[in-house]
Design brief:
The chain has about 650 residues and is of the alpha+beta class. The chain is globular and about 85 Å long.
Length: about 650
């Protein structure tokens, strides 16, 4: 008999015993206060203020799919007299109550566990009595209900309870859910910490609901917690993790839209410790730094320090070069050199001799960075830094975009970094995106050295490069992929691809690329019978990325302004893009800085043409015409965030 069978048998026996007891007692009356930690405290007789939920601390331990959840709920009685209260706690189905304690002075209350059907009667009764239909969002969950316990006037008490459950697995993915209210007005902080222990290596962890801070302690051991600024984020806490022994591990979360298909989220992770034996894919790093007059002083000193820090982080056998530019471009070496003690000393001398003066020739600096033949077998990376607009040589934004798109024969990844706000942000974004890289913006008073070092830290240990995702079945069944081009994956990265699928047959997918130095093909087959409307976050994330792509296309139209340039809402091609932005925003409930008017009270959402005209004016003024300064940097930061969105933003 397996551990799983024993656990399920014990779990079923416990639930049956508890539900039989609950069948006899669930109709008893309510205390003066009913505490629903996931929602709020309710006063039954409404004679005075309710007992308040101050905070909830959650500790979750997952060992081989068995999750142990302990909640410590801090309650406060704000009134001047002792009050009675009881806790009603929605929980996932098929849990076993394992512990309960109460810090008050009275006898320890007793808890009862109600299964789904009995819990539904409680929810319905509370809705009728408290007139709060929001409680029905917990329909389908089980329920833990306490007996009455006292809370002294002005006092805090802590209620601690725990339950066990066997988590379900879908192939290599294991899912955990902690119920919590979707109400954006619910502001009680929840501190959630999770430890995961698995015999098989854990390749990645993912939450579509809350930002995570993760620390790895070994291939199958991780600890994580909800980020501090996400503790009041509304909605249930969802967590998924992938386990796999080697190669790329992947899983699919699907949302059906009918018999013909739906939306999907592909989550893929890399084997932990893939780089422990050394980098199989070596990097060639070309540092390209602005030395125009505006870089003089502290910015240039920080740039020197950042360059030396990056070179120090290169692994043995990796190569580098340094280009500095103002009106002209100067090279450290004619071709990339291998990192040695001697080349590092020469690079230090070269950097110390740099002086800031002259204009900014971005076009020629990029050309010189892209042109040379890279070292064989390396991944060629460029870190391109500027603090200004192109002022010397070819200054056309269109020409610079075209240069990177059409004259990058060796497929160098150009990671752009704009220092300050006097930069052409759409241009720097485009240069990065067209070369399979990302853009970063360093705001005034931010530390240049620290920010640039963080960019390079994310590029540690290439694992999968030149990747492509396809559906090998007859007639592609996947479309509208976001991102359309799969990014390179480095040590510790995860891949989240969103798209649309057709049909309900098993969906085959194939991921190809250079995996640790050799060509690999990873094949997967996903069962679409498990598609569920519970995965409603999937189409919303897809739509957010889609909107970012449409805004990018509209911003790009401002690269070549002219006297006869039509307003966005008047250009038929651009108007079509605006119309799609408005449609996605209203259909999926997504607000951007260009469609924020959709949330204003009194906005008539049926007046489609008027809404499109309004959005067109916003895009014309902000996205097309604003290409530098605080406003433009803010748009680029928002665009970067939406383009790679993995996390819901319910607020």
């Amino acid at each position: 008999m397996t551990f799983r069978t024993l656990f399920l048998g014990a779990l079923a026996a416990a639930i049956l015993a508890l539900s039989a007891s609950a069948q006899q007692r669930h109709t008893r009356g309510w205390a003066a206060n009913v505490i629903v930690p996931q929602a709020r405290g309710y006063r039954i007789d409404r004679a005075q203020g309710p007992v308040q939920v101050k905070a909830v601390d959650v500790q979750v331990t997952i060992v081989e799919q068995v999750a142990s959840t302990t909640l410590t709920i801090t309650l406060h009685n704000p009134t001047r007299r002792r009050q009675e209260a009881e806790v009603v706690l929605p929980v996932p189905k098929d849990v076993a109550l394992s512990r309960f304690s109460y810090s008050g002075g009275a006898a320890e209350p007793v808890l009862q566990l109600l299964v789904k059907e009995e819990a539904q009667k409680i929810y319905d009764g509370l809705v009728r009595k408290l007139r709060d239909p929001a409680l029905l969002e917990f329909a389908g969950y089980g329920l833990i209900r306490s007996h009455v316990f006292p809370i002294d006037a002005g006092a805090d008490v802590r209620v601690r309870l725990g339950y066990e459950q066997l988590l379900l697995a879908d192939g290599s993915r294991v899912d955990y859910v902690l119920p919590r209210s979707e109400n954006v007005a619910y502001a009680v902080p929840w501190s959630v910490s999770v430890t995961i222990t698995s015999r098989r290596p854990v390749s990645t962890v993912y939450s579509p609901s809350h930002a995570l801070e993760t620390e790895r302690h070994g291939p199958g051991k991780l600890s994580l917690k909800v980020a501090r600024d996400a503790r009041t984020e509304p909605g249930s806490f969802h967590l998924s993790y992938l386990v796999g022994d080697e190669g790329v591990t992947a899983s699919l979360l699907a949302y059906p839209t009918g018999a013909s298909g739906g939306y999907f989220l592909l989550l893929a992770g890399l084997p932990p410790g893939a780089k422990s034996g050394g980098s199989a894919i070596k990097r060639e790093v070309t540092l390209v730094f602005d030395r125009s007059g505006s870089m003089n002083g502290h910015k240039l000193e920080q740039t020197r320090a950042a360059a030396l820090q990056i070179l120090a982080g290169l692994e043995p056998g990796e190569t580098f070069n340094i280009l500095v530019y103002n009106a002209t471009v100067d090279r450290f070496a004619a071709r990339p050199v291998i990192k040695t003690r001697q080349s590092m000393q020469q690079a230090r001398t070269f950097l110390e001799g740099i002086q800031a003066q002259g204009g900014t020739n971005i076009h020629d600096a990029l050309l010189e960075a892209l042109r040379p033949q890279p070292a064989p077998g390396t991944l060629p990376l460029v870190l391109f830094l500027t603090d200004g607009l192109p002022t010397v040589g070819q200054t056309s934004e269109v020409a610079i975009r075209k240069l990177v798109q059409e004259h990058n024969p060796h497929q160098r990844r150009v990671f752009t970094c704009g220092v300050g706000v006097d930069v052409n942000t759409p241009l720097l974004e485009s240069v990065a995106l067209r070369s399979r890289a990302t853009s970063t913006f360093i705001l005034p008073k931010e530390d240049v050295e620290l920010k640039v070092a963080r960019i390079f830290e994310r590029l540690k240990g290439p694992v999968l490069v030149d990747a492509a995702l396809s559906c090998p079945s007859r007639g592609s069944r996947i479309s509208a992929l976001m991102p359309a081009v799969i990014p390179d994956l480095f040590e510790g990265d995860q891949l989240v691809v969103l798209g649309r699928y057709t049909g309900n047959r098993p969906l085959p997918m194939m991921l190809t690329g250079n995996f640790l130095g050799r060509k690999r093909v990873f094949e997967f087959s996903f069962d679409l019978k498990k598609a569920s409307t519970k995965n409603a976050f999937v189409p919303r994330l897809w739509a957010s990325r889609r909107i970012a792509l449409l805004v990018d296309a509209i911003r790009e139209s401002g690269a070549a302004p002219g006297p006869n340039t039509a307003a966005v809402a008047e250009d038929p091609k651009l108007k079509e893009l605006v119309d799609e932005i408005v449609r996605l925003s209203t259909e999926h409930g997504i607000l951007t800085e260009y469609t924020a008017f959709l949330a204003l009270e009194g906005t008539d959402l049926t007046q489609r043409e008027e809404l499109v005209q309004h959005a067109g004016r916003q895009l014309d003024e902000r996205a097309v015409s604003c290409r530098r300064g605080w406003g433009s940097v803010n748009q680029s930061l928002n665009s970067n965030q939406m383009r790679g969105l993995k996390l819901l933003n319910r607020r």
